[in-house]
UniProtKB/TrEMBL annotation:
It comes from the Bacteria. This is DUF5753 domain-containing protein. Residues 2-103 form the DUF5753 domain. Pfam families: DUF5753. InterPro entries: DUF5753.
Length: 112
């Protein structure tokens, strides 16, 4: 998954909730089954700012399915969002740098 760094820095949630969230993200295994990466807050405008989405591929089936997450639920996207995903993937920090970013966000919760 790729998360927006600005959202992580300016979350507006109680510290105890965000502490649990950051801790959970940092505890996810880095074995390829779950990779967490972050787009830096200074990355500027990117397709991920439109909202959450998934691009799904299934072995043995041609093509992809793109899903968008809205306030009303999950819907099929009107277009293939693969290019949008690739743009965001290019902007995202490496797994190691993303862990450093998340660790700093976690530490910032304890700052006055």
């Amino acid at each position: 998954m790729i998360l927006d760094g600005l959202t992580l820095e300016r979350h507006g949630c109680p510290p105890d909730i965000m502490r649990a969230q950051f801790t959970h993200l940092l505890e996810l295994p880095a074995d390829g089954t779950s990779t967490v990466r972050v787009v830096q807050p200074n990355a500027g405008v990117h397709p991920g700012l439109h909202g959450a989405f998934d691009v799904l591929e299934f072995p043995g089936l041609p093509g992809r399915i793109s899903l968008v997450h809205t306030a009303l639920g999950i819907d099929a996207a009107q277009a293939d969002l693969w290019d949008a995903w690739q743009q965001i993937d290019t902007l995202a920090l490496s797994h190691t740098d993303s862990r450093t970013f998340l660790t700093k966000c976690l530490a910032a919760l304890d700052e006055p």
